[in-house]
Structure to design on (288 residues):
């Protein structure tokens, strides 16, 4: 009999794979590669890199699928970005940036290691069980070919698993009646989300938007006067994660408990190496 998957095992695996996927968003390599094809604005580069798998979509599609960005910010760059570079050109530039970033952060020995090849095999096996129904960002990336190089195959699989969970998470946020800013505020209040200065600086919302969302959360009894989650707020955020886990259980159940444990172990080691190499800016996560 196959051992049951431990509670939150899938979430723990996601929590180390997702940052590995995200390293390229904070890398100078992405900006350099996209600038070389005509996309010089950092925000435009982010929208293009993440949305390109969906094709030359408009601002409405990007705002809907990314969820927590102000539409005016998205519309300032999309669909104009596709006039600078086609989605196919952006995807090729992104692949070059990911390759350069992972080589720089992890080093050639890890890139060529047996652990890297094993992690890629495990992550791809998990992704076999992802479902595309009502998951547009996952489905778009699932249509892309799997890279041959193990480190790029691992990144591709991590992307599939990240967007699969993310698409499901948005459905849960909608059911919890948290709008994009309320979702950001309440996540930041857990201490695990993006710090307000980062959220405001990258998502396009104003301080007034943030304070208004905080007020709505206080009216619902989810946030106290000091901006901390009440017990009801803590319970809601925990329920959101648990429900997201349920919607995301298929790939990890498919991989099995031993495979999930091994993938988490290898990915955590890779992530710690990336952290030590300065993969992410200081102060990005927290309440301040």
């Amino acid at each position: 009999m196959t051992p049951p998957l431990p509670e939150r095992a899938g979430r723990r695996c996601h929590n180390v794979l997702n940052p590995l996927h995200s390293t390229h968003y904070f890398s100078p390599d992405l900006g350099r590669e996209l600038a070389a094809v005509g996309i010089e604005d950092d925000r435009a580069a982010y929208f293009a890199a993440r949305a390109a798998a969906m094709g030359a979509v408009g601002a409405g599609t990007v705002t809907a699928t990314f969820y927590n960005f102000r539409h005016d910010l998205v519309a300032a760059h999309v669909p104009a970005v596709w006039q600078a570079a086609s989605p196919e050109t952006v995807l090729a530039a992104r692949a070059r940036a990911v390759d350069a970033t992972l080589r720089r952060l992890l080093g050639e020995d890890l890139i060529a290691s047996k652990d890297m090849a094993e992690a890629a095999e495990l992550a791809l096996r998990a992704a076999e069980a992802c479902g595309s129904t009502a998951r547009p960002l996952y489905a778009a990336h699932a249509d892309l070919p799997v890279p041959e190089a193990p480190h790029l195959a691992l990144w591709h699989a991590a992307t599939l698993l990240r967007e699969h969970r993310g698409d499901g998470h948005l459905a849960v946020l909608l059911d919890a009646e948290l709008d994009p800013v309320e979702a950001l505020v309440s996540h930041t209040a857990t201490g695990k989300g993006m710090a307000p200065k980062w959220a405001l600086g990258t998502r396009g919302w104003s301080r007034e938007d943030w304070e208004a969302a905080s007020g709505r959360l206080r009216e619902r009894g989810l946030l106290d006067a000091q901006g901390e989650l009440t017990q009801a707020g803590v319970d809601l955020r925990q329920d959101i994660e648990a429900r997201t886990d349920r919607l995301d259980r298929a790939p990890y159940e498919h991989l099995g408990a031993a495979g999930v444990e091994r993938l988490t172990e290898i990915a955590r080691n890779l992530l710690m190496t990336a952290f030590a190499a300065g993969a992410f800016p200081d102060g990005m996560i927290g309440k301040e």
In short: The chain has a mean pLDDT of 96. The chain has 17 helices and no strands. The longest helix spans residues 150-175. The two ends are 48 Å apart (CA to CA).
